[in-house]
Amino acid sequence: MSENSSSDPPNSTQGPTTDKKAPQEKPVDPMQEPEEEIDIDLDAPETEKAALAIQSQFRRFQKKKK
């Protein structure tokens, strides 16, 4: 029996294979609206308060989860 019989699957040491797929790009839908850019002032006091509130709720959620 030979080493390269037709019933054996090719392995990576036998050379390049052609069945590998290239990464596929997402299809672009022409009807889809472009993504809206959001401008947030990260130095604003309201933003800091909101961030602290979100972080506090997340910490409580993590404690409950344990």
- Percent range of helical residues: 25-40%
- Class by SSE composition: mainly alpha
User: Which descriptor suits the 3D outline?
Assistant: flat
Number of helices: 1
Largest sheet: none
Euclidean distance between termini CA atoms: 58 Å
Series of secondary-structure elements, N-terminal to C-terminal: H
Strand content: under 5%
How many E strands? Answer: 0
Which stretches are poorly predicted, pLDDT < 50 over at least 5 residues?
none
Task: Report the average pLDDT across residues.
Answer: 76
Radius of gyration: 27 Å
Structure description:
This protein is mainly alpha-helical and 66 residues long. 32% of the residues lie in helices and 0% in strands. It starts with 44 loop residues before the first helix and ends with a helix. Belongs to the PCP4 family.
Tell me briefly what this model is.
The chain has 66 residues and is mainly α. The protein is built from one helix and no strands. The model has no long low-confidence stretch (mean pLDDT 76).
